Each structure stands twice: as structure tokens, then as C-alpha cells.
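Hi L.,

You mentioned the student needs an example of a multi-chain input paired with its predicted structure. This one should do, with 225 residues in total across all chains.
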Amino acid sequence: EAGVTQFPSHSVIEKGQTVTLRCDPISGHDNLYWYRRVMGKEIKFLLHFVKESKQDESGMPNNRFLAERTGGTYSTLKVQPAELEDSGVYFCASSQLTTDTQYFGPGTRLTVL
Amino acid sequence: AQSVSQHNHHVILSEAASLELGCNYSYGGTVNLFWYVQYPGQHLQLLLKYFSGDPLVKGIKGFEAEFIKSKFSFNLRKPSVQWSDTAEYFCAVIGGYQKVTFGTGTKLQVIP
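Structure written out for the whole complex:
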């Protein structure tokens, strides 16, 4: 069974540019989560999809961040325009509806210069 | 709001030493508890979890954790560490709404 995949693995952009991160969950997992870890800090929740619907987006930092999950399969997280403080590792995780156990992807390391 | 506190940020041990990593959480209701591990260059993996039942749970690679409800703790233990256990360990809790709250992580370095 394929795990959670994320693309790209690394992204280096300049302040003001736009970046789109992609997450492909494990097939059949209706729950999809985005998390972020800023250097040296804890991993923080950003938002949670159930299928294509946003269940909880309380962790989204501001309106420069837009997450979508059209069709309830893969998800994208767009940052526009990127700021220096957006640098960090963005993790995606997925789980089945009936369990709390989340499986994580390898993360995307975003560097904003 | 739920929170997780990991007491040790960086632990250095020699091979065969015993390991205990502390984790305390704050949440007023029922929780599910996890330990995740991230080996160098790899993604987060589930080490073990506690949902209910026996408070002593065993995970992969000889790790175990004990849930002590009265102390709001879920400490991770291993009797004898190996060099391959070098990694970063994260305690995590799910209280309401399936949102995982992580601790800040503990970097474990095992010296051969």
C-alpha cells in the first residue's frame, strides 16, 4: 500500500512569490490534515478535510494560505504571497474516518528568502 | 485547549542504556495518545498509541509507553537503546475534533 506522498520535497522561493504544495493521501482515507513545523518549534495543526469539506481550519495562519481538496482525493496548499515567516516543513497526514491514527507524508521543506 | 509538554529537548545516551522520555498533556476530556518518531531523512512514523484498555502499551522496535491518567503523563521507555534509535521523538495527543497536538519533540542521540 502506498503511503502519503507530498510534492515537492523542497521549495525555495522569494518573498512575495506563490507556492503550491501537494499532498496525496493513502487511498481510501477520507481524513486529510495539514501541519507545519517552523524551525525549532512544535508541529502545529493547520487544517483538516473530511473528503472535500473543510472540517476545521482553525490553525491556518492567515488568508495568504488557501487549501483545497477538490474531489476528495489529493489536496493542495497554496501560499500567496509568501512571507519569510512561512518557512518551515509542511506535513500532510491522512486517516480513515473510523480511526484517530494518522499517517504522515515526508513533508515539504519550504524556504522563503 | 489541549497541550503537550516534552521535558527533554536533547538526550544523549550510550548504546545499551535505558531510555525514558517524558510527556505530559493537558486536556479535560478523554484523549488518545501517540508517540511518533522521525529517523534522519525519513518521515514521521507511528511508534505506538494508546486509546483505551491496558495503560502499558507496546510499540515497534521494543518501545513501550505507560499512560498514567492521574499524572496526565504518557512517558516513552526502552530498556536498552541502539544506535539505530537515533531520531527525533514526538509525543502527541488527540482530544476533540481529531486535531493532533504535538509536543516540541526530543532529539535522541545514541552513541555507539
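You could point out the following to them. The mean pLDDT of chain B is 92. DSSP finds no helices and twelve strands in chain B.

Best wishes,
N.
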